[in-house]
Amino acid sequence: MAQFSAEQRSSGRQIWTHSCDAITLPNNLNGQVALVTDASRGIGRAIAIKLAELGANVVVNYNGSAAAAAEVVAAIKALGNGAQAVAIQADVSSVADADRLVAETVKAFGRLDVLVNNAGVFRGGATDQLLLDDYHKLIGINIHGVYYTTRAAIPVIADGGAIINISSIASKSFIPGYPNVAYSATKGFVDALTRGVAAELSPRRIRVNTVSPGPTHSDMASSLGEQRAQQLVDMSFFKRLGTPEDTAEAFAFLAVPRSGAWFTGQNLVSAGGAVFSL
């Protein structure tokens, strides 16, 4: 057994005490402020409501539907736990809008603790057939949107806060019958950005992670037709599509200071066993 001096033992106790601080961290988001991009529907809506259930005040970002965003705000206020919410319109593929979104978040609630980069689009097509307009849409929202909003948030997000990006199992696995090289590439960018920003922000104890959902009940899944939808179901060990609420739980896990304390630069695959071999 190794022998340690009194000084080393004392130093060791300090190191271990510091590394176990997660025990005393909050297991909720009371008093924190979360910004969720594209939160008026689907996974973003579920994330916004889940973070509010944990006590966060939430900025519900939307681009197109003010009415849908207002419904999410109303649902949060109806929780009755004191969580507040506001809806802010912004197109995160615009650097000016992304800057304004973050500034208005701080203006509304005085701070920012959790940034969820949920905004994203899917456009499918073989590499030589995908319309360039669709390619530019993928780049604009899935890449520029994440980069611009993260860039705007870094100077103001609280030390010890969290940035959580949405990726996809498509960045890790080829899905037969799913021509989506460009989409997969944009999600690969998100994975790489997450790791890099996690390293950059580690001195401030800001945790930066990614969640990769698997096949999920969504407008996209509904549009694929019965045969392809069944193919997506078969990918899961549980033989079902995920729900937006399934994915929201993964975001909540990483956002909460206690459960997420020892996670940064990671990619949490929330896919019911799909791409399990990875």
TrEMBL record:
Superkingdom, natural source:
Eukaryota
Spell out the Gene3D superfamilies in the cross-references.
Answer: NAD(P)-binding Rossmann-like Domain
In terms of CDD domains, this protein maps to: SDR_c (cd05233)
Which PROSITE patterns does the record cross-reference, listed alphabetically? ADH_SHORT
Q: Which Pfam families match?
A: adh_short_C2 (PF13561)
Query: What keywords does the record list, in alphabetical order?
Result: NADP, Oxidoreductase
InterPro entries per UniProt: NAD(P)-bd_dom_sf, Sc_DH/Rdtase_CS, SDR_fam
Could you tell me which PANTHER family the record lists for this protein? OXIDOREDUCTASE, SHORT-CHAIN DEHYDROGENASE/REDUCTASE FAMILY (AFU_ORTHOLOGUE AFUA_5G02870), SHORT-CHAIN DEHYDROGENASE_REDUCTASE FAMILY PROTEIN
Q: Which family does it belong to?
A: Belongs to the short-chain dehydrogenases/reductases (SDR) family.
Protein name as it appears in the record: 3-oxoacyl-[acyl-carrier protein] reductase
Species of provenance: Polyrhizophydium stewartii
